[in-house]
Amino acid sequence: xxxxxxxxxxxxxxxxxxxxxxxxxxxxxxxxxxxxxxxxxxxxxxxxxxxxxxxxxxxxxxxxxxxxxxxxxxxxxxxxxxxxxxxxxxxxxxxxxxxxxxxxxxxxxxxxxxxxxxxxxxxxxxxxxxxxxxxxxxxxxxxxxxxxxxxxxxxxxxxxxxxxxxxxxxxxxxxxxxxxxxxxxxxxxxxxxxxxxxxxxxxxxxxxxxxxxxxxxxxxxxxxxxxxxxxxxxxxxxxxxxxxxxxxxxxxxxxxxxxxxxxxxxxxxxxxxxxxxxxxxxxxxxxxxxxxxxxxxxxxxxxxxxxxxxxxxxxxxxxxxxxxxxxxxxxxxxxxxxxxxxxxxxxxxxxxxxxxxxxxxxxxxxxxxxxxxxxxxxxx
Length: 380
Ligand code: NAD
Description:
Elements: E1 2-5, E2 12-16, H1 18-24, E3 30-33, E4 38-42, H2 49-55, E5 61-64, H3 70-78, E6 84-88, H4 97-109, E7 114-119, H5 121-134, E8 138-142, E9 153-158, E10 161-166, E11 174-178, H6 187-205, H7 212-234, H8 239-258, H9 263-275, H10 279-294, H11 299-309, H12 314-324, H13 341-348, H14 361-373
Parallel strand pairs: 4-11, 5-6, 5-7, 7-8, 8-11
Antiparallel strand pairs: 1-2, 2-3, 9-10
Helix pairs in contact: 6-7, 6-8, 6-10, 7-8, 7-11, 9-10, 10-12, 10-14, 11-12, 13-14
This protein binds nicotinamide-adenine-dinucleotide.
């Protein structure tokens, strides 16, 4: 076994060789990269923001939010007193570079030395973009289940093109998960965002670089969200269900940050980018179909997904969960044109992704057609 400091953030990289693994970690060798960050989790943890800001030595904070969450951002930021230098509330989906540049102008004009991102993946994306450009500390306070706060990944958009990069310095220094901040997340966004989180865990279970630690987190994350989401849809202010869902989202986000994703994420990226479809709903519609596609090639992962959901079959269990949450059932409903099916199939098979089952155009096209029409998932 070799243990070394892997990068400037001193995240640890543990590699187990096959012969060592035979004694200590089962028959298959693996590599595991841990990330360096601090997590504060619970109900009411937002009250610890000042303490966490002080811990990082930040004197002039810029709070980041979207327009819709501006009041929430201002209210939470107020507890920082004289440390609050301003609230920037223009965060938008897909991290447009022009938004980051206008925030950078505020950073310079206001002598900012740290960021607090309060919101979903869009706001956390802006926090990552600013922190990586300036080297300043970043505290994320997630209010959806998307999981961006746990990943070293950032997708930025300029002139209509989204470019994704991966770097350890994109990971927030501290993540404050406050269950109370999710109580106001509307049920439909909660359900879609939760399915988005489950998708990270499903693909982590059959990832090329899957390992025992992320698989444990993946199964636990699916189980926690699978239990919580149906309760949240009925009673959005159910604190115990919100606790489970945010805990599950943390685990699923960790999986997304730790191992590579496969066909499902590629398809959602292609569909979202080509037809401007809503991110989380696209995940919710595609996930049972992509899971069914991979079922024959990833039997162990299927057992774990089904077990986590208390279902007899992984893809069917995911399909039934999505149906029970009242989410859109078809790509047609969320704005995909039928004429786009062939284009989506073409793009999806370009630049091959690691995937347990070979990605063939005809089968992928059938999968997209089934999702377009809202048919139950089947082996394509
Ligand atoms: P989002 O951040 O765009 O939020 C959707 C809407 O819900 C926004 O208007 C937001 O203000 C509002 N909202 C969020 N939390 C709320 C709350 N608690 N109460 C009321 N309103 C609330 O949506 P998202 O799904 O969290 O993030 C999507 C974006 O994140 C996409 O751009 C996606 O590409 C990115 N993402 C990135 C990663 C990564 O690892 N880099 C991971 C997941 C998602």
